[in-house]
Amino acid sequence: MESSQQLTEYELKRLDNIRRNDQLMASLKIHSKVAELSAASKRQRVGIKSYKVSPEKKPKTETPIVIRRSLRTRGMPPDYSDSKGLGDIVEAADKVSKSPTSSKPSPRALGPLSVRDAYRGTGSDKLLIERIMEGSKKENKIFGDKNGGDLMEGVSESGSCLELESLSLNPENIARVVPGKILNVRFFPCSDRRIIVVGNKFGNVGFWDVDSGAHEEDGVYLYHPHPGPVSGISIHKHSLPKIFTSCYDGFIRLMDAEKEVFDLVYSTDGTIYSLSQRSDDVKCLYFSEGPGGLNIWDERVGKCSAQWNLHESRINTIDFNSENFMATSSSDGTACIWDLRNIGADKPKYLKEVRHKRAVQSAYFSPSGCSLATTSMDDTVGILSGANFDDNSMIKHYNQTGRWISSFRAIWGWDDSYVFIGNMKRGVDVISPAQRRTIFTLQSPHMSAIPCRFDAHPYNVGVLAGATSGGQVYMLTSD
Asked: What segments bear the compositional bias annotation Low complexity (predicted)?
């Protein structure tokens, strides 16, 4: 009682509140419920594996500590199966040093691969094979005509009538053809159909048969013939059933639609960076191998008929015109024009050289063959023209795409009037060589990614394909 009298009025009131709360909780059986929940929680924790593992003490051992070394320092090719940290595969491949001790591909990879084994689609690819073969028969009939050779010239002349404002992108002309970054895109050189072929960084080759989308699988077909990034695609206008593809791992394969097989054409321990064919020669393949090397593979003898060292660094693109001239672009900062009639020497001499401040990603002849467009990482697009390609102009264009987007490569349209190149604002810039500036930008709300690699349909004026680093293909049309 004495102690109670020593408490203040506030403390007495506090004790009274505590007693009343205890009585209320007892009436509601709160304490017993808490005890039951606590017991159930402990029983539950016994059966759950925790991901937070405390460090364990490692027993002492006499075995030496293994130091991790990168694939590059061990002289081994890179593993392209993991996309994390790859950056720009095109740039990374140039830094890979392959030694004679590099691991060899499996025997299965070195032999023919059936189309069925390479196919990764969910449905059947029978319709695609039939469409390719049908297109081949029609094109052979056209070119068999005495006027068939004038077809390309007619397209080039009519291209000048194109109105840039008429080019647009419709939602039905968008397709995700492959997973991951597209490095190459090509139209089938077929006058009566629109088939687009792409190659990506994972070794996939995808086909989009735009006009057969209503029949099966939205017209998209996916194959996996390569172990690494696809560095080149070549389809000759006189041999449509044969699609050549190359990859950075040193393989060139031929997809023969008639035989339904991916045959192995060429393999090397080096790296293949680009692939091309001349319009007047269906039997030879031109491809770049290693730092600055260029090879010619001849189907008639089944081996390389010529090898040259043309640049100090890798050759990114190879292109030809109808006057026996070849253009090469290189990471050494130069683009060169070569006269194929005088290139047989051990150390060939270029006919014309264009110097940029940084790597040149592409060099393409115009449809007439009288001009050349180069694209460089120094933020310029170069235009060479004139009788001997003596007129040289550098047009400013922002070409810094970063690590995850394929580098820009400017291409010609259907005549010598316009050059098309992607921009970082999800659009397509149109450059006028005559005005030496960008005169128009093609944009669409349906472009959700940056188109970086392009191809113009060789026969259908106003049909332009743009590929993204997300595996999408946009087909712009002139309506």
From this structure: 98-107
- Which domain, by its residues, includes 250? 107-478
Find the length of the chain: 479
Q: In 3D, which of 335, 306, 359, 289 has the Cα closest to residue 327?
A: 335
Q: How many domains does the chain have?
A: 1
Question: Cβ distance 454 to 466 under 8 Å?
Answer: yes
Of residues 165, 291, 237, the one with CA closest to residue 457: 237
Residue 57 placed within a domain: no
The pair of three-digit structure tokens given for residue 34, joined into one six-digit string = 């808490």
* Model pLDDT, residue 158: 43
Q: What CATH number has the domain bearing residue 466? A: 2.130.10.10
pLDDT digit string, tens, across residues 373-423: 999 999 999 999 998 899 999 999 999 998 899 999 999 999 999 999 999
Calculated CA dihedral for residues 371, 377, 379, 381, nearest 10 degrees: 10
Q: Rounded CA gap, 463 and 86, in Å?
A: 33
Rounded to the nearest angstrom, the gap between the alpha carbon of residue 267 and the centroid of all alpha carbons in its chain is: 21
Q: Give the pTM.
A: 0.76
Report DSSP state, residue 218: G
Sheet strand arrangement including 325-330? 315-320, 325-330, 334-339, 352-355
414 inside domain = yes
Nearest to 358 by CA among 392, 309, 408: 408
Q: How far is CA 414 from the centre of its chain?
A: 23
Across-strand partners of 318? Answer: 328
| Helix (H/G/I), strand (E/B), else coil: 360 | strand
The C-alpha atoms of residue 438 and residue 441 are separated, in whole angstroms, by 8
For residue 52, name the pLDDT band (cuts at 50, 70, 90): very low
Residue given tokens 């593809």 in the structure block: 245
The alpha helices in 30-125, defined as continuous H runs, are 30-46, 89-93, 107-110, 115-118
CA–CA gap between residue 158 and residue 168 (Å, rounded): 19
Residue 51 lies in a domain: no
**Helical ranges in 29-75 per DSSP H:** 30-46
Q: Whose structure tokens read 């720009």?
A: 88
Token pair, residue 23, equals 């009585």
Residue 69 is assigned to a structural domain of this protein? no
DSSP 35: H
Per the CB < 8 A criterion, the answer to whether 395 and 383 are in contact is: yes
